[in-house]
Amino acid sequence: MDKRKSDVDVIEKVLDTCYRARPDALFFMSLLHQYEERGSLSKKQLEGLLAKARKIEEIPSGWLATLEAVILKMPTRFKSTIPVPAPVVEKDERPGQLIANILAKYPQHKRVLFLKAKYDNNEPLSALETGELEKFSKLLLKQ
């Protein structure tokens, strides 16, 4: 990336002054290197630079104010929150009881076996299918 062309580059001046004041500080060295390579720093990096630069007395307060203004102009990015899982649908126990009662007496009833497989796979039973189970229960169990 090309570095932004500007007449007065306050960020570079602050970085140079901080590096000259503390040449052994790796933080300033790495920020200066990244700024020279990329031409910009992230908002978090600039905030860290500002916090450390405030401790150095050789930096004019105008540069610090300009750096703070640059930081305030940058957008703040937030991580999205973890989505809340959808509530688990509770099974209606009535169809399960009807299926168990019918299959206890007629274990080979094909339609009831199909509805049992559907019920066991947590697929919702329609009102028509529930009505069938009630009808089968009335017809088969009252004999």
Automatic annotation (TrEMBL):
Superkingdom: Bacteria
Protein name: Uncharacterized protein
Organism, as annotated: Filimonas zeae
